[in-house]
Each structure stands twice: as structure tokens, then as C-alpha cells.
């Protein structure tokens, strides 16, 4: 029997997934010793474990490893769901001497796992770092559905998010565009929308991650300057470091929407359905 093992990072998503799959949530204790070390214990037999845990922030990584270890000792199958794959942004060597954290994490996670599902990893090729079956769930459609009837256009804050904006726009059935960087001089860079006119339009800016909010704020500033009407901000993974959410709202965003990969007041849509679909396709 499949049972969900909910790590401490995404209990809301674990609950949504359990409901979606009609599977129970196993009873688990997760504690910290006085020195900060993590302790986990499964309180019931688990035959097929589905662990839900982020690899962000750092303490959740150790918790994931311990949950995998405990599960592997009793279950015949351990599927690992990582809603937000922290350490995914360092997915290659940018400068000589660096580590590839996205690959190293994969090596460690796969040791006790039968398969892994990541939700919108920062780059698609990250799943290829795993030597066990690995899949990526995509929450773009779910987010786009939230904005149906609310916006006339989807905008990506940079070229990297352009494909996501295009996909969201096809669901909403509206236009999309993305910001491109133009170098004005050696020290000056300006960002401009590739082609579209935004004046008077209701727009959602979409990206995979909001961390400090800097990328979104740049885009909001430009859209306000170009007299866009309502500006919404959406992401899959809302980290909101250093009050990024307040800064985004102060800059003029009408609403922020993120998924439940990282729980916050902005987790207005769930990625449970996409994960459940992928789990169904896995061989038992
Ligand atoms: C970058 O490649 C990502 O897609 C996001 O645009 C970035 O992580 C956002 O970071 P911040 O919110 O700090 O600008």
C-alpha cells in the first residue's frame, strides 16, 4: 500500500497529494536534538513510501536523507517528491573551480530512492543528473488557469522564463512577451520588452522562482512606466527572501500567486494533481 511520508517542508502539499491519490499519510516524528541534529522515526509499517520534502533550506536536506533511510529500511519502494529542488540553480560550472550542486544533490538523493519527481526544476536537464527514473512536474498550466479571464498578456521577466510565459499564454489564450537585456554602454544595461505594447493591459509576470524579488521588481517598474493596467506576479517557487513579497506589492503588483511547493500566504494553487499524474505513470 502506498503511503505519503510528509517531511516538514511542505505539509500542505503532502496533504493535497494524499487527497489526490487517495493515499494515507504515515505517522512520522521529526525532531531536533538540542545541538540541532535531526531525528526521524516512522511509526507504522510502510510498503511503498512516497516522501514529500524540499531540499531547501539546508536543514530540510538532512531531514530528507533520514526519511529516505528510515523508509528504505522497511519499504520495498521509495519514491521521492522534491517540490522545490534547492541547489538547482548551480546546474553547471560557470567558473572554473566551482561545484555543480544540482548534480551532487542528485547523487546523494538517489542512493535510497527508487524514483524522483521534481517540480519545475530550474533547468530541464537537471533530471538527467539522476541515474534512477526521474521526472519533472510542470505547474505552469495550473498557474495559468488561475489567471484565465484576469489578464490580457503574460510576460516573462527574462528570456529564461520565456517558454513558461508562452505556455501560460497558450492556456489563457492571450499574448505573451519577455524582457530582453540591451547593453547601452559598458556600464549600463536596460531591459526592454521584445515586441509588445503593454499600455492599458492587465498583465501577469511569470517566473519559476522569486527569491529576493529583484527580477520581478525590475519588470514591474518597466510595466508601470509603460502604463500597464493591473500587474500580477506569479511563480512556481516563492522563496520571498528579505520581505521580497512586500517589496513586490509596494512596487505596484496587485497580487502575488505561487504554488504550494514552498508554503506561504501566496500558495494559491497546488501542484498535487501534476505530481499525482506522474506517480500514476511510474511502474510499481
Ligand atoms: C533565475 O534564473 C530565476 O529564473 C529567477 O529569475 C531568479 O531566481 C529570481 O531571483 P530574484 O527574485 O532574486 O531576482
Q: Any idea of the CATH topology of the largest domain?
A: Rossmann fold
Q: What's the main sheet like?
A: 7 strands, mixed
Number of helices: 8
Global geometry: globular
Q: Per CATH, which architecture of the largest domain? A: 3-Layer(aba) Sandwich
Order of helices and strands: EHEEEHEHEEHEHEEEHEHEEH
Strand order of the largest sheet: 10-9-8-11-12-13-14
SS class: alpha/beta
Mean pLDDT reading = 95
Number of domains: 2
* Beta content: 25-35%
Bound molecules: ribose-5-phosphate
Count of strand segments: 14
Residue stretches low in confidence (pLDDT < 50, at least 5 long) are none
| Helix proportion range | 25-40%
Features:
7-stranded mixed beta sheet; 5-stranded parallel beta sheet; 284 residues; Rossmann fold; binds ribose-5-phosphate; alpha/beta; 27% strand; 2 domains; globular; 8 helices
Amino acid at each position: 500500500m502506498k503511503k505519503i511520508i510528509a517531511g516538514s517542508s511542505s505539509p500542505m502539499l503532502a496533504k493535497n497529494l494524499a487527497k489526490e491519490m487517495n493515499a494515507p499519510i504515515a505517522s512520522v516524528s521529526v525532531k531536533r536534538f538540542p545541538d540541532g541534529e535531526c531525528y526521524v522515526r516512522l511509526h507504522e509499517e510502510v510498503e511503498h513510501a512516497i516522501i514529500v520534502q524540499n531540499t531547501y533550506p539546508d536543514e530540510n536536506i538532512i531531514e530528507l536523507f533520514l526519511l529516505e533511510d528510515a523508509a528504505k529500511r522497511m519499504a520495498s519502494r521509495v519514491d521521492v517528491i522534491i517540490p522545490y529542488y534547492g541547489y538547482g540553480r548551480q546546474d553547471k560550472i560557470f567558473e572554473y573551480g566551482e561545484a555543480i550542486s544540482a548534480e551532487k544533490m542528485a547523487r546523494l538523493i538517489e542512493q535510497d530512492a527508487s524514483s524522483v519527481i521534481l517540480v519545475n526544476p530550474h533547468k530541464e536537464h537537471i533530471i538527467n543528473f539522476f541515474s534512477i527514473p526521474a521526472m519533472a512536474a510542470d505547474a505552469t498550466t495550473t498557474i495559468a488557469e488561475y489567471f484565465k479571464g484576469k489578464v490580457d498578456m503574460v510576460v516573462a521577466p527574462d528570456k529564461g522564463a520565456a517558454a513558461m510565459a508562452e505556455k501560460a499564454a497558450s492556456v489563457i489564450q492571450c499574448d505573451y512577451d519577455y524582457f530582453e537585456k540591451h547593453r547601452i554602454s559598458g556600464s549600463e544595461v536596460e531591459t526592454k520588452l521584445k515586441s509588445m505594447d503593454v499600455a492599458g493591459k492587465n498583465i501577469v509576470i511569470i517566473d519559476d522562482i522569486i527569491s529576493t524579488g529583484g527580477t520581478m521588481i525590475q519588470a514591474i517598474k518597466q510595466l508601470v512606466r509603460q502604463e500597464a493596467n493591473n500587474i500580477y506576479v506569479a511563480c512556481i517557487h516563492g522563496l520571498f527572501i528579505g520581505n521580497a513579497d512586500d517589496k513586490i506589492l509596494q512596487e505596484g503588483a496587485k497580487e502575488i500567486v505561487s504554488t504550494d511547493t514552498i508554503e506561504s500566504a501566496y500558495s494559491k494553487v497546488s501542484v498535487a494533481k501534476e505530481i499525482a499524474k506522474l506517480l500514476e505513470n511510474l511502474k510499481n
